[in-house]
Amino acid sequence: MTVKALHVIRNLLPSSTSAHTKRKKDARGQGQGDAAMNGGSGHGNGTSSNGTSSNGARSNGASSNGASSNGESNQTNNGEVVDANTLLPRYLLPLVRHYHDDFFVSRSFDPRLVVQLMAEGFLPIATQGYLLPKLHVERCVLQLNPTSNLHITKSTRKKSKRFLLSVNECFDEVVAGCHRQHGTNWLYPPIVAAFRAIHQRTIDPNAGGVNAMLMAHDSLEPRDVTPVRLYTVEVWNAETGALAGGELGYSVGGIYSSLTGFSNEDAAGSVQLLALGKLLTQCGFEYWDLGMALDYKTRLGAELVRRTDFVGKVKQSRVENKGVALRCDGRRNAKEIVDWERAAPAAANGATQNGNSHLNLEQNNAPQPASKKKAKKKGSQQPNRKRPHGEEMGG
Fold first, then answer.
1. Which is the most buried residue in 159, 189, 200, 288, by most CB within 10 A?
2. Tally of helices (H runs) and strands (E runs) in the chain
3. E strands within 116-162?
4. Mean pLDDT, the chain, as a whole number?
5. Rounded distance, CA 253 to CA 229, Å?
6. What is the pLDDT of residues 210-268, one digit of tens each?
7. Phi then psi dihedrals of residue 253, to 5 deg
8. Residue 154: in which H helix or E strand, if any?
9. Does residue 152 come out as left (phi exceeding 0), alpha (psi in the -120 to 50 range) or beta?
């Protein structure tokens, strides 16, 4: 993007304070202070179906931790009260305002704005008529490189041979699967249209994603760009060829974020999680962002990361790992992917000591032969469970 494009982004919405105040009041009136009041299950945006969010926010817009819902302050888990709008980069202030708790609000669904929010660490979700970027106080994150914390259960590994995994084969079918399983929830048509536009640029070999501008927090002048890519991940029944599950996700640098997903068959979701985790590792991703904390994510190996730390990781990785992308050579057997093992540390190409992986992408993305039988790895002691796409991914 250029400076001209920046001006276009600034002009997507009126910048007057009164206009933003009116929009925020309208959002409260329509949403009653709850991002999931429009009939969705709420898992994807961090709000349960009974109107209570996972971070304790009540559905009337007032936070149970005592923070004001007027967009002026936000209280972290350690008791620190911050002005929530200071979490927004200066150039986004004419377009986005704090709504309540972890949520911000905008009337624009322009893909350029969505991409900028992704590149700043926000998870973009929606309610009817409003974009609701979410910046979690704590993010559930799984480290993949230079060492992986991914937990593999014996039962899921065994079941993985029944499925194939692919990337970017059927955007519309994956969205339809999410709608069938979760209802509209936060996946409203305007945000689907924005995701589709980003996805089309991602699969375009001449584009490879949508460039987001990189600017200092208090600056209005771009200093660099980084590609943002949006993906669909599909799981197929190896015997029938039917679509068994899938998810939407996106990447900024070496960080992949899951948005939402679904599963149609028993074990398909669990296999998808495991195979995707191994494929992300193989492609050189540093971290897998899983959104809000849920039990199945921590059993997978994810840990909670504070908001400031997560945003810092995004800002570092978006500069150092622009070339990292999720690739899959056609439909690959999920067990082949699960059984993949990284090269010995001495052969890893440029892994750094600060936790940032600089693996050779061509080497990592080459089709991998099925691994020879190895000594059995000790699996997770936690019981296996059906893929929890009923408990939405990102949120």
1. 288
2. 11, 15
3. 123-127, 130-134, 138-143
4. 77
5. 9
6. 999 998 777 788 899 999 999 999 999 999 999 999 999 999 999 999 999 999 999 99
7. 60, -130
8. helix 154-159
9. beta
